[in-house]
Design a protein that fits this description.
Helix content: 10-25%
Radius of gyration: 25 Å
Distance between the termini: 25 Å
Order of helices and strands: EHEEEEEHEEEHEEEEHEHEEEH
Strand order of the largest sheet: 1-3-4-5-2
Number of strands: 17
Number of helices: 6
Bound molecules: zinc ion
Length: 302
């Protein structure tokens, strides 16, 4: 069971000169009171780090006596990392930092503002994010990462980018002429002519490289049939394998305001706002069965 403390205030850091073993740490930590919010103590000594949970005896005082201790992770399985860019109050950020130390059961992160927190036995929701590119960076992946950077009330989510390069969707031999949605993506097809639908060019014998919405626009603007390579991530999702218990997020050209879930897939609007993405992340967490209201360890006393 993964554990992330609710608040960095629940975590205190203590440099000690006793061995980082259960008996010695118990003797030390029960010999002195701790600040009333303290639930976990990161102890450092002899070049190592360990994590101890303390059980306190509540009183009216600002400092509580420690009644008992439990060594949650010893020095052989705990890493202490400095990540000044990481907000340690955000579970997904802690888990992202912990990715750099995959062998450690417990990763203590000293992050932004000098705050220290940890993740024990990281078990994030693995969210595969399917997007097409260019443009680079793939927008949906980038936006999801940015929303997760401040998602302090969500359980840890680890995005797994699944970016499909548009050029890889073009079968050989290439068509002589491709019609793309717009110039903004910066896509180039060497050896083929390229036009852009949003510029409403004169009709040519082209292949439309675009989504269902582009096709509808094409049908409105031009006469006759057009060969199409469907680039909507929702269509491409059929080719993507997602392991059991993990979730897929895609965007779809036909959604404008609503978010949908289909099986273990969350579909967000093509032009998703941060609010849409937050709704999509809430849905992904629910699909993964992690929306039980206890994203991050145990409630603290007031
Ligand atoms: Zn679509």
């Amino acid at each position: 069971m993964s554990l992330v403390p609710d608040r960095y205030r629940a975590v205190s850091v203590l440099d000690v000169d006793v061995p980082l073993e259960a008996v010695a740490l118990h003797a030390l930590l029960t010999s002195r009171p701790v600040y009333r919010r303290t639930r976990y103590v990161v102890v450092r000594g002899g070049g190592g780090t360990a994590l101890v949970e303390v059980t306190t005896t509540a009183t009216a005082a600002l400092f509580y006596d420690v009644a008992d201790t439990a060594l949650l992770a010893g020095p052989g399985e705990t890493a202490y990392v400095h990540r000044p860019e990481v907000d340690t109050g955000v579970p997904s950020e802690l888990v992202r930092a912990a990715q750099d130390v995959p062998d450690a059961r417990c990763v203590v992160v000293e992050g932004r503002y000098g705050h220290v927190s940890f993740v024990l036995d990281p078990d994030p929701v693995r969210l595969h994010v399917l997007d097409v590119a260019p443009p680079w960076p793939a927008k949906l992946v980038d936006q999801v990462e940015r929303v997760l950077q401040t998602a302090e009330d969500l359980p840890a989510v680890l995005p797994v980018p699944r970016v499909v390069e548009l050029a890889d969707l073009l079968p050989e031999p290439r068509a002589e002429h491709y019609l793309l949605q717009c110039r903004g993506g910066g896509m180039d097809v060497p050896g083929s002519a390229v036009s852009y639908l949003d510029e409403v060019p004169p009709r040519r014998d082209w292949t439309l490289l675009g989504c269902a919405r582009s096709r509808a626009i094409h049908d409105f603007l031009y006469e006759g049939q057009v060969p199409q390579i469907d680039t909507c991530p929702r269509s491409l999702a059929r080719q993507v394998e997602v392991p059991e218990g993990e979730v897929l997020m895609v965007k779809c050209c036909l959604l404008e305001e609503e978010t949908e879930t289909v099986g273990s897939t969350v579909v967000v609007p093509w032009g998703a706002t941060f609010r849409h993405l937050r709704e999509g992340l809430d849905a992904a967490v629910a699909l993964a069965g992690r929306d039980d209201g206890t994203p991050s360890g145990t409630e603290l006393p007031p």
